[in-house]
Design a protein that fits this description.
Blueprint (H helix, E strand, L loop, with lengths): L23 E3 L4 H10 L3 H5 L5 E4 L1 H6 L9 E4 L9 E6 L9 E6 L3 E5 L4 E6 L2 E7 L2 E4 L10 H14 L3 H6 L10
Parallel strand pairs: 1-2, 2-9
Antiparallel strand pairs: 3-6, 4-5, 7-8, 8-9
Bound molecules: glutamine.
The site of glutamine (GLN) has 11 residues, from helix 3.
């Protein structure tokens, strides 16, 4: 999907593979297995200091949380929708997203149980946060690569472009009122 949007992509398996990337997708899969791979390859520190936009989807959201890489101030609950809802689809509304709701495919998906003040929740299912962002990091509970809708990949690529051009917050905040200053 990223290729079809004009991005040049490669797989990351070792710290050297991160070299020169403008952004990173941490995909769905199995977070325990992925954690073992990250440990085996010594990827935890390079990922923590990557400093570029990251898009975590499903298991990738779990890896970004406090209990794993700790890159986002969120706590994720694995398989949160329970056994009877191994997999389902849901129309999700996102703020500032043109073209109506996103049809989201959830597969043994996590949700976010807690988050800090820096985290903005941007979509929820039955009141449970399933999409959030914090600075250059975007995390969603579902699989945006399944289906035809590429709007979340576009959103991420806009963030990658903005970060590369130095205007990190400009892309996210386009058209939104300025935030009140911190007190
Ligand atoms: N249930 C998986 C886990 O805990 C995530 C599932 C997925 O990525 N689709 O890691």
């Amino acid at each position: 999907m990223l290729r079809s949007l004009g991005a040049e992509v490669r797989e990351v398996r070792t710290p050297d593979d991160l070299e020169g990337l403008d952004g990173l997708v941490m995909p769905g899969g199995e977070s325990t297995t992925m954690t073992l791979g990250i440990e085996r390859e010594g990827l935890a520190e390079p990922l923590r200091s990557f400093g570029k936009p990251i898009f975590g989807t499903c298991a990738g959201l779990i890896l970004l949380d406090r209990a794993h890489l700790g890159l986002m101030d969120i706590a994720a609950e694995r398989n949160a929708f329970g056994r009877q809802l191994h997999s389902f689809e849901e129309d999700l509304e996102f703020p500032d997203m043109e073209g109506g709701p996103v049809r989201a495919v959830f597969i043994r998906a996590p949700w976010i149980t807690e988050h800090g003040p820096e985290v903005e929740v941007i979509a929820a299912v039955d009141g449970h946060p399933v999409a959030a962002r914090q600075g250059d990091l975007l995390a969603i509970s579902f699989h945006p690569e399944l289906g035809e809708d590429d709007r979340l990949h576009r959103l991420f690529l806009r963030q990658v472009t903005a970060a590369r051009e130095g205007g990190t917050l400009a892309a996210w905040n386009a058209g939104r009122p300025p935030r009140p200053p911190c007190s």
